[in-house]
Design a protein that fits this description.
Layout (H helix, E strand, L loop, with lengths): L13 E2 L7 E2 L18 H6 L6 H6 L24 H14 L4 H13 L3 H14 L4 H13 L3 H14 L4 H14 L3 H14 L4 H16 L1
Antiparallel strand pairs: 1-2
């Protein structure tokens, strides 16, 4: 991950100003099986623009990955090929059950569960991936976002801080830490200190400028 907007995954929780949108929780995976993963829409924004694509059915699944795994096995799916998210998850789930140490497949399945807001399963899969491939700051950041979505803020902050240690220039981890501190925990003093560092790291980043403006707005309103 480079300190740039042109990255594999802009895994950000970010605030946008406006009553209709509010602050949004990051970019979600849009092409669920792409090797090079583009920025992802947040669950909130995905719902607003009508791109949920199977989230309702996924939310109804009681445990594990959404949907039942099909019988049989075979090679890991090479790509979505236009398949609905639920079908892609079912196919990949069956493969991961038989190949639990295939790190790439585990990460794909984690991202798919993230994409449908199956947060607990996404957390489990991200943790397993980090056992296989430790110190990946992108995955730590996504795991932090998944913890934030289940209101586990201490665990969320821990993952962002671990991502910063793994890659000091990973500005998204600092960004997300600020979001949790300022908007979830209302710890504006701590958030402002980290924000000053982030602004030095990313002086021309419009997302950072928007975040700074929203932190200031909410602090003044508190």
């Amino acid at each position: 991950m480079k300190a740039s907007l042109d990255v594999n995954r802009d895994n950000l929780l970010f605030a946008t100003i406006g009553i209709l949108v509010g602050f949004i929780a990051g970019y979600l995976l849009h092409e669920v099986m792409a090797t090079r993963q583009p920025p992802r829409l947040t669950p909130e924004l995905r719902a607003q623009i009508g791109a949920a694509g199977g989230e309702q059915a996924a939310a109804a699944a009681p445990e594990g990955d959404a949907g039942a795994a099909p019988a049989g096995g075979g090679a890991a799916p090479a790509g979505a090929g236009g398949a609905p998210p639920m079908q892609a998850i079912q196919e990949l789930r069956a493969y991961v059950e038989k190949n639990p140490n295939d790190a790439k497949a585990v990460l794909q399945l984690a991202n798919l569960n993230y994409d449908i807001r199956n947060w607990k399963r996404a957390q489990e899969l991200y943790r397993h991936y980090l056992e296989l491939k430790p110190n990946d700051p992108d995955v730590m950041t996504d795991l932090g976002i998944a913890y934030r979505e289940t209101q586990e803020f201490d665990k969320s902050l821990e993952q962002f801080q671990l991502a910063q240690k793994a890659e000091p220039g990973h500005w998204q981890a600092y960004y997300n830490e600020i979001v949790v501190l300022a908007f979830d925990l209302k710890k504006f003093d701590q958030a402002t200190q980290i924000l000053a560092k982030l602004q030095q790291m990313q002086p021309g980043n419009p997302d950072v400028a928007k975040l700074a403006a929203e932190v200031a707005r909410q602090r003044n309103a508190a």
